[in-house]
Specification:
Layout: H1 5-11, E1 19-23, H2 29-42, E2 50-53, H3 57-71, H4 76-81, E3 83-85, H5 87-97, H6 114-121, H7 131-143, H8 148-158, H9 161-180, H10 185-198, H11 200-209, E4 212-215, H12 223-233, E5 239-243, H13 258-261, H14 263-266, E6 271-275, E7 277-278, H15 283-293, E8 305-306, E9 315-321, H16 324-340, E10 348-352, H17 358-367, E11 372-375, H18 384-397, H19 402-409, H20 414-424, H21 429-441, H22 450-470, H23 473-484, E12 496-500, H24 501-504, E13 509-515, H25 530-541, E14 544-553, E15 555-556, E16 559-560, H26 565-573, E17 581-583
Parallel strand pairs: 1-5, 1-6, 2-3, 2-4, 4-5, 7-8, 9-14, 9-17, 10-12, 10-13, 11-12, 13-14
Antiparallel strand pairs: 15-16
Length: about 600
């Protein structure tokens, strides 16, 4: 396997010092990881003594397949003994072996999804919102190593009733987990860390079993995962990690980019390698990406160096539109022209900051008869806030089903909903849609991560717009039924990908459209980290191999919008040799708020 000079230096790092490899987009991150594994084996480290942790199960499957191909002589029995997987997968293996020392039954179960929601309900405490959102809140506490008592103290300080209620359920939920001898995903790691920290037998086994620990996507690690790494390697003499601080996108989920930028402080004496050569993007795309991300201050200083030859038509372009319908229509027509010119649908992607932007774009593509595949988002009409909005309007219109009435009757804030319905009874759709949207937006559970809170509100607003455009209740409910049944292409079918930027990380397409680049959306108005928002645009732009078309609207969700200040940074700081075209550029840039977003 061929590696360039920078990749080779990183792959052949000599211990005992820990090492971090800062791998820019398209720089051969996975190739270097595989190269590291090959190098360790060549110098005498048994393959089963090398642990590789990946961010997702899918990534683990890819790495495992590439290891088999690269080594060429891994027998099935040896492959079964090797560990390539997620932190959670590692913890399951360890806890199955040391279940008694961790206080768990031998056949302990893992609760997730519906089983986790059922357990939350079994605490006997009432939650006013979606239990899936409550489960997410509790996971975020655990990822930050916040105990139930600390969560309760935090909620009391903030004097937020919903958060106080969530903290009470968290404590009861933890008791239920312990009494039943089951684990949710964060508890798998917590139990492993405790066992490794307090039990010499567990600690000795780990030190003998895994002589080298390799970690992929290190920039997305959270406090709980760092605690696990510290339990595995101590000060990290045999730790080798790879990631990109400029692609750290999960601060709202507990990840901290400073684990990557300050690696040498936490794991003493850590060596840093930088992979700056980009084998994905043309020079114009790379120049635009460099322009926007170098504004950030919490980062490892570097500039991605494009290794791809330019072609006519390459580059980054920005365009403003009157509203989101006009924007979506223009994007759909531009894609249709490319497809007629011979471009394959799978070579085009449309990316957005929030899943609430997807319905308008999907409808525009549908009118052009362009197949789509959704990534990172579910069906708009299956979102709990949208289902609530539809149920409210069904009751207001007098056409509610028993299921609609039951849903509202069981809602913890049914009095507020009932008062609204009393005033709206018999009102035409034109009068009821916006008030119903405001009602649902105000029923968002407190304590949700900023991304989920923002999506809840935006989805409620988008649902009202969809309703108003239908004109009558009957047409709206027909629209809901038809849209809910809309199918999307499978993974193996030719289709344009509609994806959130988060879900697109690690992927690439020759042509990428980034829609909704507005002050309230990118950076998102619910985010408190401007630099992470800027990294999102960086990631979106670097998904494009040759063409990236960024757009925004002057009106979205029936409200005035403004071009993202990131666009001015990107356009004005870009290398003059790769000028960014901007259609309908505003006269003055929109500044970022002084205190952040």
């Amino acid at each position: 396997m061929q590696l360039d000079d920078d990749q080779m230096r990183a792959a052949t790092h000599a211990g005992p010092r820990p090492a971090i490899v800062i791998a820019g987009p398209g720089s051969g991150k996975t190739r270097t990881l595989i190269g590291r594994h090959l190098h360790l084996h060549r110098i005498g480290v048994p393959r089963e003594s090398i642990l590789i942790s990946t961010f997702t199960v899918k990534a683990a499957q890819e790495v495992r397949a590439r290891l088999v191909e690269a080594h060429g002589d891994i027998a099935e029995t040896e492959l079964a003994r090797m560990f390539v997987g997620t932190f959670h997968g590692l913890c399951v293996r360890l806890l199955r072996r040391f279940h008694a020392r961790a206080g768990l039954p031998k056949d302990f179960q893992i609760v997730a999804g519906d089983a986790q929601i059922a357990l939350l309900k079994d605490t006997g405490l009432t939650w006013h919102g979606e239990y899936a959102d409550l489960a997410d809140m509790i996971s975020r506490w655990k990822d930050r190593l916040v105990s139930p008592a600390e969560a309760a103290a935090e909620a009391a300080r903030r004097q937020t009733p919903d958060l106080v209620q969530a903290a009470e359920i968290y404590a009861a939920y933890e008791r239920e987990l312990a009494e039943r001898g089951v684990c949710d995903f964060p508890r798998l790691i917590i139990a492993t860390v405790r066992a490794a920290s307090s039990d010499e037998a567990v600690r000795s086994f780990l030190q003998r079993r895994f002589r080298h620990v390799l970690v992929d996507e290190f920039q997305d690690t959270n406090r709980l995962q760092i605690a696990l790494l510290e339990a595995l390697v101590g000060q990290g003499g045999n730790l080798w990690v790879v990631g990109d601080d400029d692609q750290a996108l999960y601060g709202w989920r507990g990840a901290d980019v400073r684990y990557a930028t300050d690696f040498g402080r936490r794991f003493r004496g850590g060596t840093r390698y930088v992979l700056a050569r980009n084998y994905r993007c043309t020079p114009a795309v790379a120049a635009a990406a460099n322009a926007v991300v170098t504004v950030n201050t919490v980062r490892v200083e570097k500039t991605i160096l494009p290794m791809v030859e330019p072609e006519d038509g390459d580059g980054v372009h920005i365009a403003g539109f009157g509203d989101d319908r006009e924007e979506a229509s223009a994007v759909a027509k531009a894609i249709a022209r490319r497809l007629r010119g011979g471009v394959r649908p799978r070579d085009v992607a449309v990316l957005f900051r929030s899943g609430s932007l997807a319905p308008v774009v999907q409808a525009a593509l549908s009118r052009e008869k362009i197949p789509v595949r959704l990534s990172g988002i579910g069906s708009f009409w299956s979102l709990p806030e949208v289902r609530l909005f539809v149920s409210v309007l069904r009751v207001a219109s007098g056409s509610a089903s028993g299921e609609d009435r039951d849903a509202l009757e069981k809602h913890p804030r049914k009095r507020r909903i009932g008062a609204f319905l009393h005033t709206m009874k018999g009102a035409p759709l034109a009068s009821a849609a916006e008030p119903a949207s405001n009602l649902v937006a105000n029923l968002v559970p407190e304590g949700l991560p900023p991304d989920r809170t923002g999506l809840w509100i935006e989805a409620a607003q988008q649902a009202a717009i969809e309703a108003a455009e239908c004109g009558t209740y009957a047409r709206f409910f027909e629209h809901v039924e038809a849209s809910s049944g809309t199918s999307t292409a499978g993974d193996d079918e030719e289709a344009v990908v509609l994806s959130t930027i988060h879900a697109a990380k690690g992927l690439e397409w020759p042509t990428v459209f980034v829609v909704g680049a507005e002050l309230a959306m990118l950076p998102h108005h619910k985010s408190t980290d401007v630099e992470e928002e800027r990294r999102l645009l960086y990631v979106a732009v670097t998904r494009a191999m040759r063409q990236c078309l960024v757009s925004y609207a002057d009106e979205r969700f029936a409200r005035a919008q403004f071009a993202s200040p990131f666009l001015f940074e990107m356009a004005d700081r870009c290398d003059p040799a790769y000028r960014i075209g901007w259609r309908n550029r505003p006269v003055r840039p929109t500044p970022l708020p002084a205190e952040g977003v």
